[in-house]
Specification:
- It is an enzyme of class 3 (hydrolase).
- One of its GO terms (biological process) is polysaccharide catabolic process.
- Pfam families: GH5_mannosidase (PF26410).
- Its EC number is 3.2.1.78.
- This protein is α/β, with parallel strands linked by helices.
- The chain has one domain: Alpha-Beta Barrel (TIM Barrel), CATH 3.20.20.
- It contains 15 helices and 13 strands.
- Strand 9, helix 8 and strand 10 form a beta-alpha-beta unit.
- Helix 6 crosses helix 7, helix 7 runs parallel beside helix 8 and helix 12 runs parallel beside helix 13.
């Protein structure tokens, strides 16, 4: 009947146009679902595994991705950084999945979230998927930046229900623990508005980190932190059994561990309420995390002595992963400051080379050293967000080559170059 009025074809054409626009822009989740199915990263003993093959990691930290994604003028930096990382053959980026209180807060107050910022995090995940970069998300900060445990304590104190104004009450106050659990549940069960995938079901997420550099100075025995880690790791796993989980440790040995005397940088390192072995043995913790900051930790040594410390520090933890934990050891931050009096860019490169070489040798021997993430990478024009560790890697070609060489070396161990276009292009000249 419509055709008889001469309207059928114009309407059909209009409907087709609308359908095309909708499929192209209106439901971006359709685009993502049409991509090849990704596998979750799992572990087998001391190794990360993807699709049945060992997965060794060369990656980086860009904590700022969600914050920048929330601002239209800064948003392009997110895609640019992820694209650049992919072109370097990097595979994992560690970033914040929190911003508690303050500017661009994800969690405005306990249980109240800013949907605009949540959509910014959705965008980070969707862009990471587009570029094949897996994300290690940290869930809260021990430090004050981006809210951290201080903000949680402040919220409880302001409501008159906090047991103590001490920042360490984050680890034992039942109200604060309830705040944090609610945040974790909200995050893990979030349905991405772009991909349509719940975070807990998205394999582009490498895993979760309970806290960035947890410390509980009020209980050097470590019991308070240990209880918190056990409770929170079990809670995360009760919601999400797909993803790997770590603590977020710096790697210091505790007061009862004999290695505190021979491996820790100095005596103070055993007083923070953490213990690498004890904390990493928690059953629901899948892999151990370690940080490396020689010039902040051993300030009164020569550069060569600092490099010696780095080697000893890394090899000790890899040994622990192999013999004590039977878990991968992931060096989730390593950095070298440019504020040293005698700083030279070549020193930083030698530090990078030391770290990367140890990871490669561990991977080649199928030991527990599973990878390393440099702190931290930026794109151009981000000087105001830099600290004394950040770099734009392609601004110094020799530095850039260290990272790409490591990507190619690890890829060859996994047999990737023959199957992946990025690695073929990146590593062909290194054959």
């Amino acid at each position: 009947m419509v055709a008889g009025n001469g309207l059928f074809y114009p309407i059909l054409g209009f409907a087709s146009c609308v359908a095309f626009i909708y499929m192209s822009f209106g439901d971006l989740g359709l685009t993502y679902h049409q991509e090849p199915e990704l596998a979750f990263v799992t572990r087998n003993g001391t190794q990360f595994v993807v699709d049945g093959r060992p997965f060794y990691i060369n990656g980086w930290n860009s904590y700022w991705l969600m914050d920048h994604s929330a601002e239209e003028d800064r948003k392009p930096r997110v895609s640019a950084m992820l694209e650049a990382g992919a072109k370097m053959g990097l595979t994992v980026c560690r970033t914040w999945a929190f911003n508690d209180g303050g500017y661009n807060a994800l969690q405005i107050s306990p249980g109240r979230f800013d949907e605009r910022v949540f959509k910014a995090l959705d965008y980070v995940i969707a862009e990471a998927r587009q570029h094949g970069i897996r994300l290690l998300f940290s869930l809260v900060n021990n430090l004050r930046a981006y809210g951290g445990k201080t903000q949680y304590v402040k919220w409880a104190w302001e409501e008159g229900i906090g047991l103590s104004s001490s920042n360490d009450s984050f680890f034992f106050d039942p109200t604060i623990k309830r705040y944090f659990k609610n945040y974790v549940k909200t995050l893990l069960t979030r349905k991405n508005t772009i991909t349509g995938i719940e975070y807990r079901n998205d394999p582009i997420i490498f895993g979760w980190e309970l806290m960035n550099e947890p410390r509980c100075m009020s209980d050097s025995s470590g019991d308070t932190l240990q209880d918190w880690m056990e409770e929170m790791s079990a809670f995360v796993k009760s919601i999400d059994k797909n993803h790997l989980l770590t603590v977020g440790l710096e790697g210091f040995y505790g007061p009862k561990n004999p290695k505190r005397l021979t491996v820790n940088p100095e005596d103070w390192a055993s007083t923070f309420g953490t213990d690498f072995i004890r904390n990493s043995k928690v059953p629901d913790i899948d892999f151990a995390s370690v940080h490396i900051y020689p010039d902040h930790w051993v300030q009164h040594q020569t550069f060569e002595e600092k490099l010696t410390f780095v080697s000893k520090w890394m090899l000790s933890h890899i040994e622990d992963g192999h013999y004590e934990l039977n878990k991968p050891v992931f060096f989730t931050e390593y950095g070298f400051s440019n504020l040293n009096n005698d700083f030279q860019p070549s020193q930083r490169e030698r530090f990078y080379k030391t770290v990367l070489d140890i990871i490669y040798k561990s991977a080649k021997r199928k030991r527990a050293g599973a990878g390393a993430l440099v702190w931290q990478l930026f794109v151009e024009g981000m000087e105001e967000f830099n600290d004394d560790f950040g770099i734009v890697p392609w601004e110094r070609p020799s530095t850039y080559k260290y990272f790409t060489k490591q990507s190619c070396s690890l890829a060859r161990l996994q047999g990737i170059p023959l199957q992946n276009q990025i690695y073929r292009e990146l590593c062909l000249q290194r054959q």
